[in-house]
Amino acid sequence: MTTTATATKQFISADQLLEHWQGHRNLTRRVIESFPEKELFEFSVGGMRPFAKLATELLSIAGPGLKGIVEGKMDAFDDETAAPKTKEELLAKWDSETEVINLYFNQISQERFQETFNLFGQYEFPVYQNILYFIDNEIHHRGQGYTYLRALGIVPPFFWERF
Predict the structure, then answer these.
(1) 113 φ/ψ angles, rounded to the nearest 5 degrees
(2) DSSP code of 7?
(3) What is the pLDDT of residues 26-44, one digit of tens each?
(4) In 3-state terms, what secondary structure has residue 56?
(5) CA 136 to chain centre
(6) What is the pLDDT of residues 101-136, one digit of tens each?
(7) How far is the C-alpha of 51 from the C-alpha of 40, rounded, in Å?
(8) Which domains does the chain have, with CATH numbers?
(9) Does residue 116 sit in helix, strand or coil?
(10) Which of 82, 110, 154, 158 is at a distance of 20 to 30 A from 145, taking alpha carbons?
(11) d(Cα 5, Cα 43) in Å, to the nearest integer?
């Protein structure tokens, strides 16, 4: 009997994953920009949190999560400390966190993506799954933002225009 070894081909590179993620972040930033200031912090549907709180949660996960992965230590999740109070502050924090993501993401070696990491003391998954969680959570919350914008009579950005 003859066996043939097959080389596993990589589906997506780390650079492509980061570019994909940053495309989502660009789109979420445009959703934040679409909100009137007052509604960004106060409007909700069906008892869900206002979009500013959802965006603040995203800020509290991605950058701190990547930093924890790179440094090998993780603080408890905290989305209340230094929550932005204005749309301008939220957008500035969003832009600042984008740079934090770029900095730490690029320090994760290919091998580390497969290592298990306990994110915020709650989620024990491989690093790549934690990163996919960051992206999935952002898409989920952005969908809530789209619902809010539609309820306010505002047409949200096209979801496919990420850059």
Answers:
(1) -60, -25
(2) P
(3) 999 999 999 999 999 999 9
(4) helix
(5) 7
(6) 999 999 999 999 999 988 877 778 999 999 999 999
(7) 6
(8) 14-151 (1.20.120.450)
(9) strand
(10) 82
(11) 57
